Amino acid sequence: MATTAYLPKEKMKDWLKVLSEKHQLFVPCLEDDVVLFQLFNPEKNLCFDRPANSSPKTIIFSQCEQLFSFNFKKEPDNPQKTSIELKENLEYPPTIIFGARPCDAKGFMIIDSVYIETDIADPYYRGRREKTTIITLSCPVPYVGCFCTSVGGGPADKAGSDILMTELEKGYFLEASTEKGEALLREPLFEDGSSYIDEAENIRKACYTMVEKPFSDDEPGKKPLPRFHEDTFWEQEGNRCISCGACTYLCPTCYCFNITDEQTANTGERIRTWDACMFHHFTLEASGHNPRPAKYGRLKNRVGHKFLYYPEKYNGVIACSGCGRCIRYCPVSISISNVVASLKDNMRESVDDKH
Amino acid sequence: MGSEKLKEIVSKVLPEVDVVIGYRQGFDQLHAIPHFITTPEHIDQLIWNPLCVHNLATYLPSLNKKAAVVVKGCDSKAIVQYMQEELINRENVVIIGIPCTGVIDVNKVLHAINYRPVKEVTFENGSILIRTSEGQKKLLLSDLYPDKCKTCQYPTPLVYDHLVGEPVKTDKPPESVDEEVREFEKKSIAERLAYWEKEFDRCIRCYACRNACPMCICRDKCIVESRDPHLMSQKLTPGEKLMFHMIHSLHLTGRCIECGECDRACPMGIPVSKLKKMINLGMKNRYGYIPGINPEDKSPLLVFSLKGENTEEQKP
Amino acid sequence: MTNIKNPYLPDIATVTRIIDETPTIKSYQVIFNDQETMKNFSFQPGQVGQLSVFGVGEATFVINSPPTRMEYLQFSVMKVGEVTKAIHELSVGDQIGVRAPLGNWFPYEEMKGKKILFIGGGIGLAPLRTLILYMLDNRPDYGDITIIYGARTPIDLCYKDDLKEWESHSDVELILTVDTEFPGWDKRVGFVPTVLNEVAPSPENTIAITCGPPIMIKYVLQGLARLNFKDDRIITTLEKRMKCGIGLCGRCNIGSMYVCKDGPVFSLAQLREYPSEI
Ligand SMILES: Cc1cc2nc3c(=O)[nH]c(=O)nc-3n(C[C@H](O)[C@H](O)[C@H](O)COP(=O)(O)OP(=O)(O)OC[C@H]3O[C@@H](n4cnc5c(N)ncnc54)[C@H](O)[C@@H]3O)c2cc1C
Ligand code: SF4
Ligand code: SF4
Ligand code: SF4
Ligand code: FES
Hints:
The structure holds three protein chains of three kinds. By secondary structure, chain A is of the alpha+beta class. Chain A has helices spanning 12-22, 57-60, 102-115, 123-130, 179-185, 197-210, 231-238, 246-250, 295-313, 325-329, 336-344, and strands at residues 4-8, 24-31, 34-39, 64-75, 78-87, 95-100, 132-137, 163-167, 171-176, 191-192, 257-264, 267-274. Chain A is globular. Residues 347-355 of chain A have low confidence and may be disordered. By secondary structure, chain B is of the alpha/beta class. Chain B contains ten helices and eight strands. Chain B has helices spanning 3-13, 73-85, 106-112, 147-150, 179-185, 189-201, 208-212, 238-250, 261-265, 273-287, and strands at residues 19-25, 32-37, 67-71, 93-97, 120-124, 127-132, 135-140, 162-163. In chain B, the strands form two sheets. In chain B, strands 2-1-3-4-8 form a five-stranded mixed sheet. In chain B, helix 8 packs across helix 10 (273-287). The longest helix of chain C has 13 residues, at 125-137. In chain C, helix 5 packs parallel to helix 6. Chain C is α/β, with parallel strands linked by helices. Chains in contact: A-B, A-C. The interface between A and C is large, with 53 and 40 residues. The complex binds flavin-adenine dinucleotide, iron/sulfur cluster (SF4) (3 copies) and FE2/S2 (inorganic) cluster (FES). One iron/sulfur cluster (SF4) binds at residues 250-253, 306, 320-326, 336 of chain A.
């Protein structure tokens, strides 16, 4: 049995204060009408009412990471000659992501396969990942666009979380599934959790059945996306796309990046910043040739990557955690779950049929 | 809500064009999406209601096709501006105008229903009814207007080839248009800077605001991503973000038609249009020019004249 | 932390020689500043490197000196954009960043005992050069070598010294062509795919390796099919916009495969399985 604990609601802030003493602590905060992960301080307006607008991805896979800095030096005995010195910094502070959702936590697992569990790992991502503990809040209800249960997750899925919290009537039930998580539960603030297991289980199950299932799970032996190569379908779907990066930047699983150099006088840095496969110039070559010149080709690649190419490489795992952000915040409401449902060519079960 | 009349017009227009751009229902009944109609079978899905928020004119300059487009009053200002700047060939565009009584800020609805999945949406004189797992919620349309509708001066499209229904007149006083900006300008420079720093702090440089903007026509070749010239880095510093938004705003000087698409598109809820409205107010005060009203006009900054009435050095 | 090297950190090297190949292409010979790195460096024919001009950026180039000649690494750079322009401004003695080797390589072991047909256009001879020199350095392992190489004009032919030398080998057939007539040019005139058709090499026990501009590759592949070369006997190298070069940045994919890591060398048989996003 995993380590469990119970935290009365009124002690939440106390716990956060304790956590923030030894960690860089990120919590979901309400800013105007937007929920964002921000560094904790007691004055912040915490918000657990709905998932954050953007995923906590940037805390580990930073939107802007310095790969190294460089420094040009004139050689003292030969001022015509300059030498270059490179400096990398891979030291990261212990960090906690608090109040992520199960789909957010799963997002990191999807990136892990590419960035860590490979022959050439990414040292920046790995460095931050190893230093980060993820404390997830199970979802009491689904939100507009959510479809986690169709892609192998669920509103109380523990995968990727060090601790899973479930909100009960008067407090939180906490369940650690890693050593990192267990360590954080050894804290005098907590009460024994064992008597709350059933209450938590009921809440978790109730939500599971409420999540919309836009498409059915794969039938064995059937090609996952039979209509994938119908380009007329992609044109119909993709012509409304405006080629912005909202979907990819909010997504907990998108991990494409750009590398650019910046220089002032004798020093500079090489940085990597998020990039989006939906941008026109993402694949634009110096010759002017672009293998994905049209919006529909880029949409096809984004969906294809998540539902076809990635699963092909990583044991059938879908590279989408069903968080619904790209659906909720797409300026033209393109819905990846609708697109996949159409590609699977099966009927969309309406929410209405179930309730 | 005029959907039948609209379908009738679209059926008539479709044979003359390659595509008709209208709206249809999106992933749920609360979200409409742009609908590209190329065959008669697509017509049946057409809808028109206050959830049809997008400015569909935005697609025109890069379309390279003969197109018909459904526009509201505010959207039509983009077409007027395209005509001023010769960004479209008017002969290749059929404008289907819809007199509009105001659209809905979908975010306000989502907020009111606690972001629950939507099961059903219906309209009932002046209200929208939304059913979710929490039950039915009735909201007054007048509480859901985006800012632009609250001060809209041109609810009937300014240019059109077909009009769906009868023209409507505005009941909003003209002064209301810049009220928000005038109020904002009363703040001190320091307060304003602090305001923008806080707002842009959450900008993720996704460029949704830029790409949704009908007048941001460089899009794929935007200076903020270019390496040649290399004016900006790709960093997320407050300076870079402010720079991006300043470039966006300045490139819209005397061009922004205040359709609010940038605000609507921003996933971070940043009121990006406010900067542009401030510049527009300056243009109006100085040159008496308002973009997007008259196809025969030219934006003062697009007309070069050494001896212009307002371009001479200001005497004290 | 493990002490595996940071894959984004280039090694610093010094430019030791610059050769003007054509008006837009220069070759750079470089050696790593750190002698240990130079001594331990090994790679396979067809592998690429990322060259850095710090402050400007990185770009991908094939290592076109063979692993059998390790006094230096050679890259040929065609001036097309930001990084390549900066490289063209370097002089002997200047410092450059190198991340190499990256990517896969030509299946040269499987080619042993076979006849080899090289078909190149313009700067596309660069990756072929590595393999040609490697084979010449291991001559007994390979059968007859035929090289069809073309460029716009005689001035645009790369590696002119090599071409002269290869021409002198009795077991190498070198067929040069330029797109249009040119004063003083007494060899073939015509596009590479047309010349391939005229020469009509036999597919018998032969492997064809081609590299050049996308449009040339397209017609060469059609030509080879007409000559009855089987898909798995046709090898080509692909070009895509690249950044990381290690399969992470997501830029260079064709379906589930990354050109930087799973490529750039592919057989036509492999390519047939992927979406047509070339
Ligand atoms: C596997 C491989 C091997 C190559 N070998 C050679 C070679 O031996 N000699 C040679 O001259 N060229 C080679 N190229 C092409 C060369 O990498 C590009 O011409 C070069 O990257 C252009 O960079 P730029 O900064 O000058 O151009 P810009 O247009 O300024 O490019 C900006 C960025 O885009 C990327 N990029 C642009 N075009 C390409 C492209 N066609 N391919 C890859 N990345 C691109 C660059 O990495 C650069 O960071 C090769 C490309 C690949 C993929
Ligand atoms: S693709 Fe969309 S739904 Fe899936 S994880 Fe990314 S943002 Fe969420
Ligand atoms: S800047 Fe904003 S309000 Fe102005 S035209 Fe563009 S999208 Fe519309
Ligand atoms: S849409 Fe919003 S988050 Fe995206 S670039 Fe514009 S202001 Fe920034
Ligand atoms: S260059 Fe980054 S994945 Fe290939």
